[in-house]
Each structure stands twice: as structure tokens, then as C-alpha cells.
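Structure ticket #2291
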Amino acid sequence: MSPLLLVGPPGVQSDRVLERARQRSKPLPGGAPYSVDGDIRRQRSTAADSERADSVDRVIARLATRRDGIVERRELAALGLSAAAIDHRVRAGRLIVLYRGVYTVGHEALSELGRLRAALIAAGPTAVLSHRTAAALWKLIPSMPPLAEVTVTQRGPRTRPGLKVHATRRPPEVRTLHSLPLTAPLRTLVDLARSQPQLALERMCAEALVLKLVTHEQLDAAAILDSDLVAPTRSTFERTFFAALRQAGLPRPIAGYPIAHYTADFAWPAERVAVETDGWAFHGHRIAFEDDRERDAFLAARGWMVVRVTWKRLKYKPTLVMVQLAQTLTLRASTLQGLAE
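Resolution: structure written out below.
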């Protein structure tokens, strides 16, 4: 092989070689996305992949927005994501695992509805919200419990942290609230009757009556509790109370008598005797009932004697209630007369 001939003085040739090497090593202006040897296929492929990934993530975000922040693995697969791509997003924190195959997108600050939707998905296609979770959605209890409870009619996932699964062979009556399936109010109370204390169950039944979610007849038919423990409507109580007073020959009180910022259910202003009834249905809402004890103390401090009458006592022991009221009215009248003298 002939030796490589270099034309020109040796010093000049070396300078030219070094200059060409320096030019190749310099980045091209504008940050051109290709290498010094002119191969841009890999760089173009990487940019396209990144753009596709961003586009898919935007679709995932829109899907999650429509579903209270929740997406399922099968939905991600339907978008064309491979198992490896899904797992990569989990590792990167872009998908956060709530249950197997159920994710929240981007952050863990999940709404209450999102948490319940995730529980339904995890429990399977027959799952409906039930028990105390359904009671909270129907506003039979004041707040949502931290444990999501669902009822299923087919064998599926078991109870796990944050999720309690109840199985039944009797399909429940299902309603929809906030686009979530849940047991109907009466079925919710029937389910809770097996596990809740008597007082808590009475309060939930009374609240359901106030909200007109169930009727007395439905409670009686379901045999959830003694219907006499739950107060009737105001008009029914008033009619029964006034009839008992009439039969006992006692003076008729004023119904709904205002005392400062409170309203007594019944009152005899001259004797400063007030009758307060025990019952959510009579007062119309839970807050009024919970304030009853505070109201009693307020009235007593202003010289009023408060007598409490329950629906059960009025219905089954009206004579005893009337005797106690007669004694109270007589005692107060003589006491006030003595003070006046």
C-alpha cells in the first residue's frame, strides 16, 4: 500500500486537522438537535416519544377530572399504555396506587367522592355504598366515617385497610346520589340495625323521618325498632297533647311560645312552666334536638320550670303525664304568688 502523501508543509497540515476537529466539537447554533456526525434520527425519535407521552398524560388528566380524580388500569390500557408505561408512571409519582388497579392522578389530595368512587371500583361491579357510608351520604349521621363500606352480591375483593366489604345474597334496593350507587334509605337503616347501638339507631330513624326519606309505616314494616321511640310530626303531637289536657281539665298552653331567642314547644306564661318534647321529628332537625339541654339550662336560669314529655309516655301513660303537669302548675302558681306577697 502506498504511503499517505501529505501535501504542503507539515506544520500547515497539522493546523488544518486540529481546526476541523475543533469545529466538529462545537455545538451548532440554536441548539440544533443532532450530533456532530449529522445523525438526527435518534434525537427526532426521542422528541416524538416525549410529545406522545405528554399527550397521553393530558388525556389521563381529563379522564381523572371527570371521575373525581380516579382512573383504572383497564382505562389506561385502553389508551394504549403498556404495563411498563403504567408502572413507570407509578414509580415517577404521576399515578398513585389506591387499590390494586385503581389510581389517583398526580397527588394524594383526593376528594371524599373520589375516595368513595375508588372503593366502589376496587370492590367490583356489583358494589354499592352501604351501612354508615350510605348513612352519611343520606345525612342520617353528621359526618362521613373514614372507613368506606360497600355491599356486594358477588364474591369479590375482601375487606382491606380503608375499605369494608359486606356480602349479601339479597340484592339491595339501590339509589344514585352524586352519580354514586348506594343503598336506599330504608335498606341502609335495616343494615345498620344489626350493628348500631339502640340510641344511635333511634337518632338515624328519626332523622330519616325528618328528611322524609322513610315513613313510619316503612319503619314499622321493617321492624327496625319500636316506632313509639320515634316522635311523630309536630301536628300529631300537638293534637294528642291538647286532647289529653282537655280530658284532664288542664288549661291549654301556648304552642311555640318565644322566650328570648328560644321558642318553647308549649308554655304557660303565668306559671312560667314550659313543656319541651323529646324528638327530632317534632323539632324538625338534629341541631335543634342537640341544643335542647342548653335551652333547658337557659330557661331555668330565667325562672322557668321545664317539663320534658316523650311521645312514648304521652301515648301510653297520658294520665301520669297530666298528673305531673297539674302538680307542677299548682306548685308554680303558689310559689309565684308567695313571692308576689
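Closing remark: Residues 193 and 224 are 6 Å apart (CA to CA).
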